[in-house]
Specification:
The protein is an alpha/beta fold and 95 residues long. The chain has one domain: AF0625-like (Rossmann fold), CATH 3.40.50.10700. It is built from three helices and four strands. Strands 2-1-3-4 form a four-stranded parallel β-sheet, sandwiched between helices. The radius of gyration is 12 Å and the shape is globular.
Length: 95
């Protein structure tokens, strides 16, 4: 399964957390380049992790993820916050 991280510059710690949660392939967009607004959420994406990005980018990413039914995790530069959210999602899926 593939996860897409939008924003954040420190991708490696999040990639390790995502790999442990079952997302071995991680893609990254900085979210700061003007061309990033034109990217579409790849069809292989199963989870979207959003860090601090501008409002326009967030709304476009959210619309793309919602259209594909991809869950979105918003976290602000905190690996522990990401880990907690991944655990919560796993518990929700198990129930």
């Amino acid at each position: 399964m593939t996860a897409l991280i939008v924003g954040d510059d420190r991708v490696a710690p999040r990639a390790r957390s995502l790999a442990a949660a079952g997302y071995p392939e991680v893609r990254h967009w900085s979210g700061r380049k003007p061309g990033d607004l034109h990217h579409r959420v790849p069809p292989s994406t199963r989870l979207l992790v959003v860090d601090q990005i501008n409002h326009m980018m967030a709304s476009r990413i959210r619309a793309g993820a919602n259209a594909r039914g991809v869950p979105i995790v918003f976290c602000q530069r905190s690996r522990t916050q990401l880990d907690a959210e991944l655990r919560r999602m796993k518990l929700a899926q198990a129930a």
